[in-house]
Amino acid sequence: MRENAAPPAIPGAPGSVSPADGPQDAFPLRFRMAGWLVHLYTASGSVLALLIVIAALDGDAETALWLGLVTLWIDGTDGILARRLRVKETIPWFDGARLDDIVDYLTYVFAPVVLLWTTGRLPDGPLGWVLAALPLLASSYQFCRVDAKTSDHFFLGFPSYWNIVAFYAIVLDFGDTAVGITLVVLSILVFVPVRYVYPSRTRFLQALTLGLTAVWLGTYALLLLQLPDPHPVVVAVSLGYVVYYVGLSGYLTARGAHRRRLDSRQGAQPR
Q1: Which residues, at least 6 apart from 71, have a Cβ–Cβ distance to it below 8 Å?
Q2: Any idea what the CATH number is for the domain that residue 74 is in?
Q3: Could you tell me the residue range of the domain that residue 58 belongs to?
């Protein structure tokens, strides 16, 4: 997921022109071509979302989850590439953040809900339709919030990790009751202003978080290879990362709230 902050000028660009100073033609062609390749890299996630839906409709949940792992990798790396290649500056009229949001909605929200439906993780009838609609509607709201990504690099509210929900529901063979309760609770948490860690941007314990995220991605692949009988140790390591992520997010949210209360009290004291 990308940030909207404007990057610094490109070293070596004529006059280090900013988007407001002149047209994109002021930048070397190689920088503009690199920027378009990054955008194409991001946009490829939309094609993968289609392939996930097709695999889900074909009853091939395992392929759908492998494709989901690829989308996680793309989403975790495209922002880094965009910032390094200064695409916001080289192609200022193209909104890469909006592209990223569109792709994220398809890969993190829509395709996973389809997968949950086709694998029988939702109840039949009207209740199943309602439960399927909850994450779609909640995430539609979240993706339109201007503060969904805070200025200090957190996600505000549950960050629509429905692809992760679908992954664990299938790998751990959750029934429709457990999945339904999870969807309801997490849909509510979209609206609760907990500040969730943005692994590639949140500064606090960033090296540890990135390392554990890499381990978690490894367990994702390993659990798929072990289907239909995942090893308990691998499951424990995988879920341990989830506990770490939620715990760290809760701690930083509480710490931030405490600091704001202290600042408010100090500001209210007479001088």
Answers
A1: 45, 48, 49, 52, 107, 108, 163
A2: 1.20.120
A3: 14-259
The list of the chain residues with pLDDT below 50 reads 3-22, 271
- The answer to whether position 119 is within a domain reads yes
The confidence score (pLDDT) of residue 211 equals 96
* Tokens at 14, concatenated: 């004529």
Round the CA-based radius of gyration of the chain to a whole number and report it.
21
Three-state DSSP state, 206: helix
Check residue 260 and give its pLDDT: 72
Query: Rounded to an integer, what distance in angstroms lies between the CA atom of residue 24 and that of residue 228?
Result: 52
- Whole-number Cα distances in Å, 61 to 8, 54, 89, 179: 43, 10, 40, 16
CB 223 within 8 Å of CB 238:
yes
How many domains does one find in the chain?
1
3 within a domain of the structure (yes/no): no
CA separation (Å) from 71 to 49, 65, 78, 148? Answer: 8, 10, 10, 20
CA-nearest of 31, 68, 60, 45 to 162 is 68
- The model's pTM is 0.85
Q: Return the closest-CA partner of residue 52 out of 1, 103, 128.
A: 103
Q: Please tell me the predicted confidence (pLDDT) of residue 30.
A: 80
Closest CA to 61 of 181, 175, 215, 173: 173
Host H or E run for residue 197: strand 195-197
Q: Is residue 271 part of a domain?
A: no
Residue 264 inside a domain? The answer is no
Distance of alpha carbon 251 from the chain centroid: 20
Helix or strand or coil: residue 193? Answer: coil
